[in-house]
Structures
1.
Amino acid sequence: MRAAARALRGARRVLVATGAGMSRESGIPTFRDALTGLWARYDPEELATEAAFRRNPARVFGWYAWRRRLVRAAEPHPGYHALVALERLVPELVIVTQNVDGLHRRVGSRRVLELHGSLERFSCVDARHPFPADAVPEPAADAACEPPRCPRCGSAVRPDVVWFGEMLPERVTAEAWDLAAACQAMLVVGTSGLVQPAAQLPYIARDTGATVIEVNPDPTEVSAAAHIVCSGPAGAMLPALVAALTEGEST
Ligand SMILES: [Zn+2]
């Protein structure tokens, strides 16, 4: 923990990468866990592809409405708030996340790159015209839900998330890669390290001389790239890390 605090203290640029484990600690199901109840009979590939959406837009839209309700009911754990505090303690901090739940923004993190998009943003399926979130119907029950239509082209409105077979958003991805190459410290939190291409980021950071710190309850694929491993849940480790950092500053 002290070594991690020291690395962060000496860094001008810090990149924080967060994955599904960060969300799971706040009770948000991971992608595969989200296939429960009404949705248990579907494969993710039947709900999270453009082909699935075009085949049955109401089913796919209903599944995302259900996931939005889970996210809205979830309480961000202390690890999220610790990252907000950390943003004030280092000169430059950017969070790059694979999560689509928007929790980092909700608690007040200012610079967040969402590699896989967001459940709370929408666009049309044909032309990706943006569609306002407050005009999206929110069904009360776990059920299929007919998506609204784009006022410009008439095609169905979809969530702005990256589906199977789709590219990551270009601008956001390029920015994440640049930041990994330019940071002096990288915190990798709650990611299995298995999801490509985001799994490359710790290696890019390490290759360009940054100190890589992993926060995870269990060893992962990232551990091999990490200089420092903080074994434990993000909700406990990140506040402890911020405490170690501020203590160090006052002595
Ligand atoms: Zn449109």
Note: The chain has a mean pLDDT of 92.
2.
Amino acid sequence: MQNTSASSAHAGGESGQPGAAPGRGEPTRGPGRRAAGARGGRPHAVVIGSGFGGLAAAVRLGVRGYDVTVVEKLDEPGGRAYVHRQDGFSFDAGPTVITAPFLFEELWSLCGRRMADDIDLRPVTPFYRIRFHDGATFDYTGDAAAMRAEVARLAPGDVEGYERFVRMSEAIFRVGFEELAHVPFGSWTDMARIVPDMVRLESYRTVYGLVAKHVKDDRLRQVLSFHPLLVGGNPFSTTSIYSLIAFLERNWGVHFPIGGTGALVKGLVSLIEGLGGEVRCGAEVRRITVENGRARGVELASGERIAADVVVSNADSAWTYRHLVAPEARKRWTDRRIERQRYSMSLFVWYFGTRRQYPDVAHHTILLGPRYKALLEDIFQRHVLADDFSLYLHRPTATDPALAPPGCDAFYVLSPVPNLLSGTDWPAVQERYRRSVSALLEATVLPGLEASLATSRLLTPQDFQDRLLSFRGAAFGPEPVLTQSAFFRPHNASEDIEHLYLVGAGTHPGAGLPGVLSSARVLDRVVPDASKLL
Ligand SMILES: Cc1cc2nc3c(=O)[nH]c(=O)nc-3n(C[C@H](O)[C@H](O)[C@H](O)COP(=O)(O)OP(=O)(O)OC[C@H]3O[C@@H](n4cnc5c(N)ncnc54)[C@H](O)[C@@H]3O)c2cc1C
């Protein structure tokens, strides 16, 4: 993996000499100039961004015969899964609940390797410990009998309804995930084809609506409906298709790699390099070059131009069209259309290490606040920063103690907050907000927290915009409502530009690791075979 924005084996100019900078406006690679830099005569694919969607796309394109260059703005790969290392602690910035391990395993096996040789993936149980505002807890696991017992303890009258919900979640999974997550939705007919299934599976309901149809207890309704929040959706407006997550977790479990999620990032980078591809960090794309309606390469912020036969953007979909593609090249994704989309919530994340350990705290804890629906309305509809919150607390050292110095614990706590439409001045309020989050943790599951802090860092909606280039600072791209799903989401094969493709949270099927890994699977169906471009 290189860390440079100025030179690379791909930036060879006419001479093909590594580091010999090409003249401005002169493509360094691509059709017509292959003698200058092509390795093995393979067509060149440039992937913008090294999030999980971009890395998975790079692996798949490499396997299919492309010479792949990933260009990443940040100094390390991973995107939302970037790893912060400070004061002896290691913090995975984003994804921590690893589901659908088979999607990762597939990438290794496409390369003729075994994931287990590189990654030590451990099952985590309980999946989540849910703590209600009154202090009562619910252990959410994949064990059918244990879950039945937990439901019976919380809401004896809802056991049958819970079982019905689980069966419904499986039926939705069979269609929503197995049949639809990896296929392109490029035309109306693709959409029309699935309407009968959507009606049968009650996709017109929201996740909360579906749960409420089956169980009555208010707390159980929260336990069974929070999942859309993991992919940026409001349970009260996200289509019930997302109820499939419950079955996905139950059937394949929740996992965490030793070394943290960053171990998976590292593993994928090694697959890309093993295929002869390259991941260039510190290389921000300023523009996708388009000629006669076709993507021809990218231009970096440094001015360097890289020619390509196909361009895949793993950058935020709204940002890609709004800032990387000239307006005259966009018919569908106009500025106005981009502005009018609904964007997901954002997140306030506080990463911290403690000088002591909290062995009673589970790997994943959800602390539900006093309000559920009203808080979600504040976040998603009213766009106001509320004084109360519901939190997700991550203690990776519960599974891998080596992520913190001996005797210490690493944590992050995440609070769903409105995106930048709230107008919140985050630099001004972030410390006050952190203190109120800390006070709640101290009063509940982490006594003595402030006094034992060893290290600390924050991520706010402003950082989602400024650091990760996410439109409106949304943490998960366009909100996953029915009218922004499948055909209605920015397509994996750009509607506006030939040979431009999209992967990641902002395209089909959507956010979350299973979603973005599936978006890369879609590419197998829409990107031409490498042989066709030679
Ligand atoms: C705090 C947090 C916790 C989460 N927890 C979970 C979880 O537990 N489980 C789960 O499944 N999902 C989780 N998610 C969601 C999941 O992490 C994301 O949906 C997923 O990682 C997004 O991947 P992506 O492929 O869209 O790329 P991203 O991770 O968004 O990466 C995009 C990359 O593109 C780069 N980029 C952008 N613009 C440019 C440019 N112009 N030039 C070059 N590079 C550029 C960015 O720097 C970034 O590295 C979480 C998300 C967050 C934020």
Note: The chain has 17 helices and 20 strands.
